[in-house]
Design a protein that fits this description.
The mean pLDDT is about 95. This protein has a single domain, classed as Rossmann fold. The chain is α/β, with parallel strands linked by helices.
C-alpha cells in the first residue's frame, strides 16, 4: 500500500470566517493525519446507524446543511468531513502535495483514526471518486452506499463536454469565485449568504489551490496513474452484494445518465428504489436536500444490516 503523505507546509483558515454560517450551527471535530488537520461534522447518537456524507469540488460540508437535520430527525448519526484543501480542513500550499491518490490515502487514514464502522456512504462529485475508493478498500466498514451525481472513472471512456469546459476554466481562468461556481451548479441558485458561506474557507488565492487542481485529477486517459486502482475498485463493486442506491438528478450536464452502469454492474443495486431527482442540478444537496435525505433514510430503513460477508477489498 502506498505510504501516507506527510505535509508540513499548509494554510489553516481562520475560524472567525466560519462564524454565524446560515443554517449550519454544527461544531467541527478535528483529526490529524499526515501532519494535516481534517475537520468533520459529527452529530447524533454515537451508537446509532452512521451516515457518512462525502462532499466534492469545490464545496465543503456546508453542502449538507439541508440533509443533516432530516437524517438526525430520523435517528441517525451524521458524519460529514471536509476534504483536505476544503472547508475547515488544512490546505497544503504546494501543488505537488495534491493528487487523487493522496486524497484517498488521507481519507483512509482519517476513517481508520476515527474508527468508523457500519457506515452508510452518501457520496457526490469528488466525494464519490474518493468515497467509493474508501469503500472498495475497506468494504467491512460499509453497510450500504448511496451514489449521487458521481462515479468512478478509469480514463477509458470519453467524458462529457461540460466537464472538459469546467476543467479548462479551473486551469486557466484568472477568476475563480467558488461561491458563484457552486451557484452555477444549482438549478435553484443560491442566496448571497450561502454564496458567502461557500467562499468562507478560501480567503486567498493560495487557499483555493486544491479547488483549482481537483478537476485535473479526474482520470480522462487510459494512461492515467489512477486507472489501475480505480479498475481494482470496480472489481470490488462487481461483487458488491450489499445495498447500493443511485440518486442522480436530471439537470446535471456532467453526470446525467451515469447511474445506469451501476445498475448493470453492481449486484447490490438490483431491486433498489433508485430515483432520478427532478429539477435538481449538479448539487442536488442544495436543490433538493431534504428530499434526498428522506430517500437516504428510507433506503436505510428498507435495507437492515445483514450478516453477509463483505466483498474482498481492492488491492492498493
Amino acid at each position: 500500500m502506498p505510504s501516507l503523505p506527510i505535509v508540513t507546509d499548509f494554510l489553516r483558515t481562520d475560524e472567525a470566517r466560519f462564524a454565524q454560517l446560515p443554517d449550519f450551527p454544527y461544531s467541527p471535530h478535528y483529526t490529524v493525519v499526515g501532519g494535516l488537520r481534517i475537520a468533520c461534522i459529527d452529530e447524533g447518537p454515537r451508537d446509532a446507524q452512521a451516515v457518512l456524507l462525502m462532499h466534492g469540488e469545490p464545496t465543503w460540508s456546508y453542502l449538507y446543511r439541508k440533509m443533516i437535520p432530516v437524517l438526525l430527525q430520523a435517528g441517525y448519526r451524521v458524519i460529514a468531513p471536509d476534504l483536505v484543501g476544503f472547508g475547515r480542513s488544512d490546505k497544503p500550499t504546494h501543488a505537488a502535495d495534491y493528487s487523487y491518490l493522496n486524497h484517498v490515502l488521507w481519507m483512509q487514514a482519517w476513517l481508520e483514526a476515527r474508527e468508523l464502522q457500519h457506515l452508510t456512504l452518501f457520496c457526490q462529485d469528488w466525494g464519490s471518486l474518493i468515497g467509493l475508493r474508501l469503500a472498495a478498500a475497506a468494504p467491512q466498514r460499509f453497510e450500504r452506499i448511496v451514489l449521487a451525481n458521481g462515479g468512478l472513472p478509469t480514463g477509458t471512456t470519453a467524458l462529457p463536454t461540460a466537464f472538459k469546459i469546467w476543467r479548462a476554466f479551473a486551469r486557466y481562468s484568472p477568476w475563480f469565485p467558488i461561491g458563484r461556481i457552486v451557484k452555477a451548479g444549482c438549478a435553484d441558485g443560491l442566496t448571497p449568504q450561502a454564496i458567502a458561506a461557500y467562499d468562507a474557507p478560501f480567503p486567498t488565492r493560495r487557499h483555493r489551490l486544491g479547488a483549482r487542481l481537483f478537476p485535473s485529477f479526474v482520470p480522462t486517459t487510459p494512461n492515467d496513474p489512477e486507472r489501475a486502482r480505480n479498475e481494482a475498485a470496480w472489481e470490488v463493486f462487481k461483487r458488491w452484494d450489499k445495498p447500493f442506491l443511485t440518486l442522480f438528478s436530471n439537470r446535471d450536464p456532467v453526470t446525467r445518465g451515469g447511474h445506469r452502469i451501476w445498475h448493470e454492474r453492481v449486484p447490490g443495486a438490483q431491486g433498489q428504489a433508485h430515483a432520478v431527482t427532478r429539477g435538481a442540478g449538479h448539487f442536488l444537496q442544495e436543490d433538493r436536500g431534504a428530499e434526498v435525505a428522506a430517500a437516504v433514510a428510507a433506503f436505510i430503513r428498507a435495507t437492515p444490516v445483514s450478516p453477509a460477508p463483505s466483498p474482498s477489498p481492492a488491492r492498493p
